[in-house]
Amino acid sequence: MSRLVNRYGPLLSTIMIAGTAVWLLMMVVLPYFVMAEYSFHVNVPELERGGPKDVYTLANYASLFAGTDIFTLDLADDLKVFVRTIWGASLVTFLSLAVCYPVAWHLAKVATPARAGFLVLLLIVPFWINEILRTFAWYIILAYNGPLNAALVGVGIFDKPYRWLSGNSGVLIGMTYAFLLFMMFPLMNAIETLDINQVEAARDLGAPEWQIHRRIVIPHAKPGIAVGAIMVFVLAASSYIVPALLGSPGTRWFTETIYQWFFEGQDWPRGSAYAFMLLGLCVLFILGVMRLFRVGLTDIAK
């Protein structure tokens, strides 16, 4: 606070702090507060809100587990979707890390600055296009008679076209691509701070490449991996466009269920409760990643 005042003066600092506070209050705190209050109400017509039938309840949260048999693992429909979303978002996070790690290493420590800048530009340019258009592009690429199947069948990898859009494959591919940069840049930033002399010393001592990455590079890049994993998981779990366009009815995402309760079922209390359970899941994942990688908020902020 004192550094901010010393740099910009008391008047400008007060305006900046007040503007930030108003923005957070109006765009973050109040909407969440209203949604939280909604989630504890029963679903009644608008004219009956505030009346004797409009009471507080935990039924909206319990409804996610209604009809679930724990002993036979027979889950309720909405709970199945919730579990599928957790698994899918975790898999997208792992795929993003697997794809981005070698690229981030190459850009940070192998490529020349000019080449690295050119390759980063090639990565960024497609993301100047709207997310919906990029998702539709993947819809065309992954179509049954699309260019991907034509190429795979043409080179003899597949005997017949594969239905990418009838299961989880299309959603996983689309999400991995959509959130690639959120894993790439934290990894690059973390790897760039590694002293290359450590790697050279390990090579001089005869260490193979895989051991260098396992014992030197990956431990050093833990904050970057943690930040990337958090961002990709949260964005994947809360994504709506990609699973709606590239998924099928049997691979519905939990965000689609929330949308249905809000707008098709007109049950805002249940939709709010489901949204907060998804938010709680994301918070638990963030805390779990921080504990797993043994990083704190200071490490992540770097």
From TrEMBL:
Pfam families: BPD_transp_1. SUPFAM superfamilies: MetI-like. GO terms for cellular component: plasma membrane. It comes from the Bacteria. The chain crosses the membrane at residues 12-35, 85-104, 110-129, 136-158, 170-188, 224-246, 273-293. Coiled coil: none annotated. Residues 82-291 form the ABC transmembrane type-1 domain. It is a multi-pass membrane protein. PANTHER family: INNER MEMBRANE ABC TRANSPORTER PERMEASE PROTEIN YDCU-RELATED, INNER MEMBRANE ABC TRANSPORTER PERMEASE PROTEIN YDCU-RELATED-RELATED. This is ABC transporter permease. It comes from Methyloraptor flagellatus.
